[in-house]
């Protein structure tokens, strides 16, 4: 679930291992390129944290962020181990 926090949309994802987390990051990177909207994120072993905000709008949350968040969620299959 995405949370509004410090003028960003934030969500953390937990995977089974580093390989699954990194594969997810690759999919998100390709999606971000399609959107021409790039996240701030981090990765530690099986965890990925993503923060979305629109820099052109003064680092606030816009529909651009909400759309990318929805599309990121759609990368996860319903039976995914990611939380």
UniProtKB/TrEMBL annotation:
Similarity comment: Belongs to the pterin-4-alpha-carbinolamine dehydratase family.
Pfam families in UniProt: Pterin_4a (PF01329)
Catalytic reaction list: (4aS,6R)-4a-hydroxy-L-erythro-5,6,7,8-tetrahydrobiopterin = (6R)-L-erythro-6,7-dihydrobiopterin + H2O
Superkingdom assignment: Bacteria
Enzyme Commission numbers on file: 4.2.1.96
Gene3D superfamilies xref list: Transcriptional coactivator/pterin dehydratase
The keyword Lyase is annotated on this UniProt entry: yes
Keyword Lyase part of the UniProt annotation: yes
Keywords for this protein: Lyase
Protein name: 4a-hydroxytetrahydrobiopterin dehydratase
Organism: Parapedobacter deserti
PANTHER family (alphabetical): PTERIN-4-ALPHA-CARBINOLAMINE DEHYDRATASE
InterPro entries with a match to the protein in the record: PCD_sf (IPR036428), Pterin_deHydtase (IPR001533)
